[in-house]
């Protein structure tokens, strides 16, 4: 198992490839009591779909969001393209950054300034959940995603810095089970970028957890709910 070096992040980070079983185990959907011990409060999770905006006709319609609702989270949609998104970020208990195109995601985060807001909150202890592109973006640099995603969607980026929440760059879908990401493409990515970055190939039924106890790869098969 490849260890992700710790940073100053309080976290935790829950970095997913596809399956989300580790999410429920590490971020229970009940946040605590709203008024008394008999009235638990659902955890508010801020859903950021910037990585998919170039694909969807309307925001917040993807299956990842539907899965969060099914799991029992109180989903707060965070639209980085509208003024006032900072208030939405401030009112949530955790961040969820969806899959899609890594470069489109970083472009939106950087353009809005949400990258700094999210990084500051996570370093102070707000949980960060990232799936696929959202997992890659948590690392120090997103350049290793260049063979899997479209760097052209990040032409306004001055550089390919990620959020810097971990020193490891997750390479999702590393088992080659999804047609857009065959094992040959994963191998090319590891060969081309492995000498410059600390890469972690992550299977679709795995997750990387980074918290106060350290870092570890755990099973993350899709739960039956």
From TrEMBL:
UniProt similarity note: Belongs to the peptidase S51 family.
Classification via PANTHER family: ALPHA-ASPARTYL DIPEPTIDASE, PROTEASE S51 ALPHA-ASPARTYL DIPEPTIDASE
Gene Ontology BP term (one): proteolysis
Coiled-coil boundaries: none
UniProt xrefs under Pfam families: Peptidase_S51
MF terms (GO), sorted A to Z: serine-type peptidase activity
Organism, as annotated: Gordonia sihwensis NBRC 108236
Sorted UniProt keywords: Hydrolase, Protease, Serine protease
The name this protein goes by in its record: Peptidase S51 family protein
Entries under InterPro entries matching the protein: Class_I_gatase-like, Peptidase_S51
